[in-house]
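assembly run, all chains below
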Amino acid sequence: MKNFIFGFLTIIAVLAIGSLGYLRLGLAEVQADVTAPVWESQLAQLAVKAAVRRSVARVQDPMLPTDENLIAAGKLYLNVCAGCHGKPGKARGNPVGYPPPPQFFQAGTKLSEPELCWIVKHGIRNTGMSAYGPFYTDEKMWSLAAFVKRMNNLPPTVLEGIQTKNP
Amino acid sequence: MKNFIVGAIAAIGVTFVGTLVYLGLGLAPVGADAKPPAWEGGLMYSTVHASVRRRAPKMQSPLPPTNETVIAGGKLYMDDCGGCHGPPGGPATKYPTTFYPQVPQFPSVGTQYSEAEVFWVAKHGIRRTGMFPQGSDYTDAELWSLSAFITRIKNLSPGVLQGIQRQSK
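ok done. output:
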């Protein structure tokens, strides 16, 4: 039993010191212009989804997504989000970043509206997704979530509406 | 000895399974609107700098260190970097605190990176941060001028500052 504990603690120490040494010697890759290995991106996505699901209050979307709301949110999306997440019809050919930002117009999203709203508000750490809570009202972020969720099934009037400039 | 090995294998198993359970249950905090604890921030910054030091080109900037070079870099900085990293002389933006890890504010803190290191980071980005690679949007010469500007950002002559503002769109 004594040897068991000794072996256990030895490995814990080796892991801790090994990780620190690996990081401090500069052996960790940091460049962002390569694609993440599949196991890493899947594990990261799994962890993010699980954590967001846990954080989100079980509430229904409080806003009725009228065409008007969707158009307003779509304009906000084009101004603020599209640079990284892609525009309708011309998704960014080569999404940059590590992890790369999801291209909603190609892939849609499996996240629910409350989950999308939470992510817009709080951001996701260790990614390029910053928090927008300090800049927008909850209402705006809810309508943005409604827009992103419906992005690949927008009625033509909404699609036209978001392309026209505000007078 | 047998027990020692069993203990060692158990430690590996516990670490591995424990990590997966922690992540899979959603226990890892993911919100970016928090300040990293000092130990985490310090470890992240030292890891990145150690890695960049190892990978940055072992060379001096190929550009002459003239005011023209610095002004050209400053113009790029104002167009594409200042939004997050802070404009020289201007009020700090709110953006740095909305990223995790936070964005370094060069006009107030400067940088400890060499010109070649700044060049490398601008070109390749830093993974798991908001720092995207810029290598496909800019030429190497443009990025060298940018690094000339950033490494001097705390000691800009009035002539350079004026030159940047005059030329900026």
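The first helix of chain B runs from residue 2 to 24.

Chain B has eight helices and no strands.

not gonna interpret more than that til we talk
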